[in-house]
Amino acid sequence: MTYIDFDEEADVAETTQAMQDAAREVVVETALGALDLDAKTRLLAGQDVWSLPALPEAGLASLVMSDGPIGVRGVHWSADDPSVALPSPTALAATWDPGLAHRAGVLLAQEARRKGVHVLLAPTVNLHRSPLGGRHFEAYSEDPYLTGRIGTEYVRGVQSGGVGTTVKHFVANDAETDRLTVNNLVGERALRELYLAPFEAIVENAHPWGIMTAYNSVNGPTMTEHHHLVNEVLRGAWGFDGVNVSDWTAARSTTGALAGGLDIAMPGPGTVFGEALARAVRDGEADEALVDEAVRRVLRLAARVGVLDGAEPVVTDPPDAVDGEALAREIARRSFVLVRNDNGALPLRPGRVALIGAAARDARVLGGGSATVFPARVVSPLDGLTAALPDGTLTYTLGADPNTELPVADRGFELRAVCRDATGQVLGARSAPSGHLQWTGSDLPEGVTHENLHSVELTGSFTPRESGTHTFGIKGLGPFRLTVAGTTYYDGVQRPAGDDPFLTFFGPPVPHAGVELTAGEPVEVSLTYTVPPAGDHPLRVIGFTLAHQDPQQDADERIAEAAEAARAADTAVVVVATTDRVESEGFDRTDLRLPGRQDDLVRAVAAANPNTVVVVNSGSPVELPWRDDVAAVLLSWFPGQEGGAALADVLTGAHEPGGRLPTTWGSLTDAPVTQVVPENGELPYAEGVFIGYRAWEKHGRSPAYPFGHGLGYTDWTYDSVEVAEAAGTTTAKVRLRNTGDRPGREVVQLYLAPADPDPTRPARWLAGFASVEAAPGDGAEATVELPRRAFEIWDEATGSWSFVKGSYEIQVGRSITDRRITATINV
Ligand code: BGC
């Protein structure tokens, strides 16, 4: 399934890389020879949350890893060293532009180098199996081919900057419910044709230096011990020569993980490798040859990224510097999907604009969980439109609050975390990016250790934007004291429960104080957490949240105010959003509704002004029950730090929205695959190969917006498709024309449909795509090579790929349902 290369230079670079790999192997062997058993097993375990130990006897420096995928957070949960925040992976996939993914990768490598990070824990290439998956914003698509194409160039981009990747989470981590223990039962065809396919494509086309094995089990074994999928498939059949790192705390057995092909158990220091592995070897329970294999792979990675003495890193001359803000803005506007544009509502016509919605002011630019980074700035839609529209033409109204519980204290807060010992002596301090504090393992301020740390005080000021009763609350476990403006409102112990260590961060906050405050007048705020004695969990985490909510006005009044503002304007732009209680790591969604009263808000605004444009700020599908009653709907995903500027670019028409749906948007009632909750620890992927559009078509259901759909600001006609076959390669040449009145860019999509329907295969599937640009009236030509894999199925009887001969229609168009021209081929 070799793809058309994005860049021939990349091929040359890969060949050179292969030759250099051989030279590095020699250095790797020498380094391996310098290590005794204890050193070797130490190297296979994190020395802390993000790094491996340095081994000076082998000339090895410490190898540092960091999340991923939309930025590089670095080793601290802190805003002291901010990171560029790119749009969510769903947004990157919505560009359908592997070249842009490559450039994102180059930027991320630059960020990683700046932060001393050698390996980026990304990309996430699990599939959107069900729309309920809580972490879909962090994955690309429901389609394995699109996921593979985007993921391939992302990896190539990062690695072209000399930084490693860990393609994750291998494999079938497609939902979050019971993710640490669930046994996903996936049929062999679905596994090969869907879930493994992006990993396979990336291994073949981008040669990633790492992979991350998932928490979950697949058909029995847990993924960190999956001999078959790791040793036989990934390494054996596919020839993966990189390192296999566990997801954080996923490795649970010393001998099982070693035999299952795991190389690095993260995080440390307490892991199943390290001393436990040395002991197992000495006791004759683990094979030292396997330890050597794993160490070899870690040393190879170290050599590639340049932390092994004597080995030339893969990249000695990093690519030219990338302007992160400019790229974040470009990706965002190229990712926005205009799913509806009635009567040319967009671009905005001159006139008064009523901007409405909490997320228009407090933009949600990224999804929650380990993918969080702290950007130096965030451009909200309000900021972006204020800068772009003529003075005096923009009004802002909140409309509805999407938060159904107290959000993290953020806007208006300036906080520091002060650490003290048992005597009250200050040990150290660090600035806090928000009211959410999350220090994992040794990620503690200078001078602080888990041994001497007794309490953490989040302290600073809060300047209200509004006068009225402000609510303060706490999320977290243990003893807390909350003081606002000199009054202590809470001094007690909070005790929720849960198995997943990350649940500590994901439970709802408890409100403890209602405080009358005046807009613009700062007050002192303090939340002190007394650290409980260490339990026996190997991973020490200091995590808690100061939560805050602005004064709550009557919800109906707020909506009425927004409708009033809309009535007085020429256009109403409503930004609706999900929250981090809807889309985040660690849990799935239970419905696809917009939280709070946002649906009511849109209905009221649309009733007041027919020229209503809705911007949907979510990382993955939500239901839009009012979609046919508004003039335009623009999906902006989690648009990254420059989202508001990009939004202004697109709304004003300075740029057209470039995105196409990487995943089907429809209602939960119609969605064909909705089971994400395991029963008795097992989650059967009973739908087989029918997920996403494959399933919608099979069930004959019409989604709100189909896969591939997205409008620009011009029109296209599809004139012809010619198909040629040479040396076993099928190539389609598509001619089309820009028939509108402005320049545009079109994503030409090719679907392959067997002429004789076969109930075991989808009706059609994405087999290729390409983008073209043309001026008004001009023609354009797209040449798309169809990979051999597009014609193959996994034959469960023989355990191999089987080319299915016969007659196929190549259907070319603008989405899975908007197919404009076809050609028939016999293969
Ligand atoms: C996530 C990974 C992430 C790791 C480290 C895990 O909870 O599943 O994607 O890389 O944490 O933050």
UniProtKB/TrEMBL annotation:
Keywords: Glycosidase, Hydrolase. GO terms for molecular function: beta-glucosidase activity. It comes from the Bacteria. SMART domains: Fn3_like. PROSITE patterns: PA14 (PS51820). The keyword Cell division does not apply. Residues 408-563 form the PA14 domain. Pfam families: Fn3-like, Glyco_hydro_3, Glyco_hydro_3_C, PA14. Its EC number is 3.2.1.21. One of its GO terms (biological process) is carbohydrate metabolic process. Gene3D superfamilies: Galactose-binding domain-like (2.60.120.260), Glycoside hydrolase family 3 C-terminal domain (3.40.50.1700), Glycoside hydrolase, family 3, N-terminal domain (3.20.20.300), Immunoglobulins (2.60.40.10). The keyword Ion transport does not apply. Belongs to the glycosyl hydrolase 3 family. This is Beta-glucosidase. The lineage of its organism: Bacteria, Bacillati, Actinomycetota, Actinomycetes, Kitasatosporales.
